[in-house]
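Help needed: design a sequence for this.
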């Protein structure tokens, strides 16, 4: 690896730490300031931080790798994600911003659910918090593993050193600057990812002699590469159930705490349409840029007679062989940006839950803002230590769990978040049942064997579909059978609708 490549990465690391220090100096010295940025994020920062924290290294490695392997049939998941994200901005964003403010200024998802349903028993808050803490700690570990492997494969560093460097930089700016630092670094990282995903496929097409020549090369490799309905890997036609499963990834957006918390932090409801336009433009261009990187990369590498042992490294390989080492360092920093943006968001959401949903409600009910901020910082550090410990094991079971976390969060929280914002009659008992039903259904789909060969339902259909359906049914049925019994719920919902109407753009 060229020295100038390391210079690019060093500049990137320094910039991230500098943003963390800036956020520390500008942030409000309160729990709300540290954990939610004081609800003053601008529309561009909200949009790009939501996108960057959402996509992770999956967009720069997973999407290009899938397109490289199977061709355009992998675009169905891109279509599903775009539709899901757009609906999330349209339905959830303005309503969640309004409701979390009128529901006693809630700053975490579990706190919102408790205040929304007047759950004095704390059962709903504890249930939601446990789901967040367990899955996000494991989720964070997967990001640390990805960072370690990137340093190992691209820079020749020891895997353990890569883990420590990745975690160390992320923990530093998250611990210092809190939510504002995470959001601002996500904004910068989103910009880096955007430039990289436009630049790489454009240069590849130029090297191949234009779009027509690129498409001709792909056609000569396999006609199925350009088909939406057939896999180039197997040559088989993709069934309707497979297409539905890929599209259903979009359902997960409604229940992802690290994404929807951005909607809670935007400075006003009137800023949501601007954030939606910016966020969706970024997402569409970036996702298709990632897809074309894999597809066009296959054509280029085929012409050069280069084969890949790991199809998910196509972006890394193209970056190192097509660009000057200084630019290659910038492009590799885009992968780190994707990884780090998600790790930092997951760290802070987990820290927020530990601080607000456990410490300040069970261990120290009279905790001052200074104490809560201190506990928040300690929680970031402790969660990171657990994530590093898990990463050193490189446990495949953990990584398999993480691959299903999107479905778990989407099924456990997605239907509840939607109905809590759209339906006045949903009850506390239904909310608790819905969270548990969604999570358990996903786990059963993943692990419960259907035959002697150990085949599970997730082998046939993406587990978020049965999880989402079962959770929704549980919410509706329990709300009808056991409706809420307090007028406070109706009063709060009415207050929310008035606030939403008065502030809607």
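Sure. Designed sequence:
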């Amino acid at each position: 690896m060229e020295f100038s490549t390391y210079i690019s990465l060093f500049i990137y690391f320094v910039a991230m730490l500098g943003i963390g220090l800036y956020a520390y100096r500008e942030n409000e010295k309160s729990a709300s300031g540290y954990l939610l940025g004081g609800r003053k994020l601008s529309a561009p920062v909200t949009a790009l931080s939501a996108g960057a924290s959402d996509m992770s290294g999956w967009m720069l490695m997973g999407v290009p790798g899938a397109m490289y392997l199977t061709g355009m049939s992998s675009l169905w998941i891109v279509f599903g994600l775009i539709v899901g994200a757009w609906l999330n901005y349209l339905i959830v964003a303005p309503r969640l911003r309004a409701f979390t403010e009128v529901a006693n200024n809630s700053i975490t998802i579990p706190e919102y659910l408790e205040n929304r349903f007047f759950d004095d028993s704390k059962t709903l808050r504890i249930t939601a918090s446990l789901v967040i803490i367990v899955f996000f700690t494991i989720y964070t570990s997967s990001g640390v593993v990805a960072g370690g492997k990137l340093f190992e494969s691209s820079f020749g560093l020891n895997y353990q050193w890569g883990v420590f460097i990745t975690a160390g930089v992320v923990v530093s700016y998250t611990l210092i600057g809190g939510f504002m630092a995470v959001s601002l670094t996500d904004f910068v990282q989103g910009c880096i990812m955007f430039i990289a995903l436009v630049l790489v496929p454009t240069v590849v097409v130029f090297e191949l002699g234009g779009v027509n020549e690129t498409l001709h090369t792909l056609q000569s490799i396999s006609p199925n590469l350009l088909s939406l309905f057939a896999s180039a890997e197997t040559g088989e036609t993709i069934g309707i159930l497979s297409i539905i499963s890929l599209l259903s990834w979009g359902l997960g957006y409604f229940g992802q705490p690290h994404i929807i918390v951005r909607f809670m932090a935007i400075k006003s409801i009137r800023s949501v349409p601007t954030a939606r336009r910016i966020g969706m433009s970024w997402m569409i261009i970036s996702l298709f840029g990632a897809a074309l990187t894999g597809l066009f990369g296959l054509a280029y590498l085929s012409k050069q007679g280069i084969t890949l042992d790991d199809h998910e490294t196509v972006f890394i390989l193209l970056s190192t062989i097509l660009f000057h080492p200084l630019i290659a360092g910038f492009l590799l920093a885009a992968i780190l940006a994707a990884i780090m943006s998600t790790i930092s968001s997951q760290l802070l959401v987990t820290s927020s839950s530990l601080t607000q949903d456990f410490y300040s409600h069970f261990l120290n009910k009279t905790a001052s803002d200074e104490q809560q901020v201190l506990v928040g910082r300690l929680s970031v550090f402790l969660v990171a230590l657990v994530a590093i410990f898990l990463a050193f094991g490189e446990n495949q079971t953990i990584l398999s769990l993480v691959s299903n976390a999107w479905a778990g969060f989407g099924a456990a929280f997605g239907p509840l978040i939607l109905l809590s914002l759209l339906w006045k009659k949903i009850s506390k008992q239904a909310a608790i049942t819905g969270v548990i039903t969604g999570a358990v259904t996903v786990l059963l789909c993943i692990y419960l064997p259907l035959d002697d060969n150990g085949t599970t339902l997730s082998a046939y259909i993406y587990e978020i579909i049965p999880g989402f359906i079962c959770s929704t049914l549980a919410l509706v049925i329990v709300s009808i059978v056991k409706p809420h019994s307090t007028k406070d719920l109706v009063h709060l919902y009415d207050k929310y609708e008035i606030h939403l109407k008065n502030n809607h753009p």
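Residues 148 and 162 are 4 Å apart (CA to CA).
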